[in-house]
Design goal:
Elements: H1 5-16, H2 21-97, H3 103-117
């Protein structure tokens, strides 16, 4: 059976025309149900909208956390790379002091750094 909103709005008044206590009760009950239904629909819309906003906030929070983790990881890699380069330079200096420094030694150390981190940027 197809229902029509215009008829739904008038049904309680149509039932009340009879004037019997049961008809008046049914009419009042239908009006109360329609009022409660409208309130629940409005509440559902409010909660759905609030949920959508919260989901959006969570997505943005996840994006921020991912960005921060990425930045921290990049900073960490940069710090490690710099530490290894500094270590390599100190190693080259120490080798020179001990008389072991040669272009071959320098290339070995530089190749090792390149293998670890790739070519200089």
């Amino acid at each position: 059976m197809e229902l029509y909103e215009a008829m739904n709005e008038k049904i309680a008044d149509i039932i009340a025309i009879d004037g019997t206590p049961s008809s008046l009760y049914a009419s009042a009950y239908i009006k109360d149900l329609r009022t409660e239904n409208a309130r629940l629909n409005a509440e559902n819309l409010r909660l759905s909208t609030e949920l959508a906003h919260r989901e959006e906030d969570l997505i943005h929070a996840d994006e921020k956390v991912f960005y921060r983790e990425t930045v921290v990881k990049l900073d960490e890699d940069k710090i490690k790379k710099q530490a290894v380069k500094e270590f390599a330079e100190k190693l080259k200096e120490q080798m020179e002091l001990n008389g072991y420094r040669s272009p071959l030694h320098n290339r070995i150390i530089d190749n090792f750094i390149t293998e670890l981190f790739g070519a200089d940027e």
